[in-house]
Design goal:
Elements: H1 2-9, E1 11-16, H2 23-35, E2 42-46, H3 48-57, H4 63-70, H5 80-86, H6 92-103, H7 108-113, E3 117-124, E4 130-134, H8 140-149, E5 159-161, E6 164-168, H9 177-182, E7 185-191, H10 206-212, H11 217-224, H12 226-242, E8 246-249, H13 264-290
Parallel strand pairs: 1-2, 1-7, 2-3, 7-8
Antiparallel strand pairs: 3-4, 3-6, 5-6
């Protein structure tokens, strides 16, 4: 009886790592799965995994690549001009309000009516700890939660929400599989933006963090040990994969694009890489989600 209860209650999840424009690989994977009606009980996204992953719940195939190509050269969207004028490399008002509300409209009605749970991860700048947030219906405040999840330190202003000052979720929990398992998602597909065997090294930018983030010592500490957190999470993924609890999807090689790169050829290529992997793995994904 207990086994039956656990089996009946087990939910399927989709876990999405960040990585800036490496997330176009994730978008390619997701678009193929959406085209083939692959459904999950819940999605959790970090950083680009949040900004791109919300389109799964809104059923908008192709939207991620489309708006990134359309606005890649628009100074209102992303770049040094925005950073100097607003303090945000990715312009907050344009990218998280004007664009989804007016220019490439995010399907709020579909998102709100879809039963899939959607969770995101941010980092509290005063504690350095992860803050998890579930979005059931989209409005301007919830769009700011998504913005916070993707607000890279140094090149973004902290976002004030619900009594927290927040930055990029990848600082504190880059691959939130444990969190999702704790929410009852027992079988998870995890999309990574680094290849198998990747090992994160300690960042060389700590002097910059000490200079530009000196008001937030918890963020400096979190960034100084981020490689340890990330590599421990990779080890946990390997263990969960061996046990059959997760299915990993990852690029075969290092993705040929920078975190903020706006080269259209590279953007389309990375997206196509995701689509190709996803098409190859569709039978495995279906079998994994159906198996007890």
């Amino acid at each position: 009886m207990n086994f039956f209860y656990i089996f009946a209650a087990m939910k399927t999840g989709l876990v999405l790592e960040g990585g800036g424009m490496r997330g176009l690989f994730t978008a390619g994977v997701m678009d193929v799965m959406m085209e083939h009606d692959i459904c999950f009980d819940g999605i959790v996204g970090v950083s680009a995994g949040a900004t791109f992953g919300c389109n799964y719940k809104s059923h908008q195939v192709g939207r991620v690549l489309r708006y990134n190509i359309r606005f890649k050269d628009d100074p209102r969207y992303m770049g040094l001009r925005s950073l100097l004028r607003t303090g945000d490399l990715v312009a907050a008002e344009f990218s998280y309000h004007t664009l989804p509300n007016e220019l490439d409209v995010f399907d709020v009605e579909t998102f709100n009516n879809d039963p899939t749970e959607f969770h995101i991860v941010c980092t509290d700048v005063l504690t350095g700890e992860p803050v998890y947030h579930r979005i059931d219906s989209v409005n301007d405040e919830e769009l700011d939660w998504i913005r916070a999840s993707a607000s890279m330190p140094i090149v973004s202003r902290p976002v004030s929400l619900a009594g927290h000052l927040l930055l990029d979720g990848g600082i504190s929990d880059s691959i939130p599989l444990r969190y999702f398992q704790e929410q009852g998602f027992g079988r998870n597909v995890v999309i990574l933006t680094q290849p198998k065997g990747f090992y994160k090294r300690k960042t060389k930018l700590i002097p910059l963090f000490r200079l530009f983030m000196r008001r937030y010592p918890a963020i400096i500490r979190a960034m100084s040990r981020r490689h340890l957190m990330y590599n421990e999470e990779l080890a946990y993924l390997e263990d969960q994969e061996r046990q059959g609890n997760i299915l990993l999807i990852y690029p075969q090689n290092t993705l040929p694009i920078g975190r903020t790169e706006q080269n259209e050829t590279k953007m389309r290529h990375v997206y196509a890489m995701g689509r190709q992997i996803s098409e190859t793995m569709l039978p495995l994904v279906r079998a994994f989600l159906k198996s007890p």
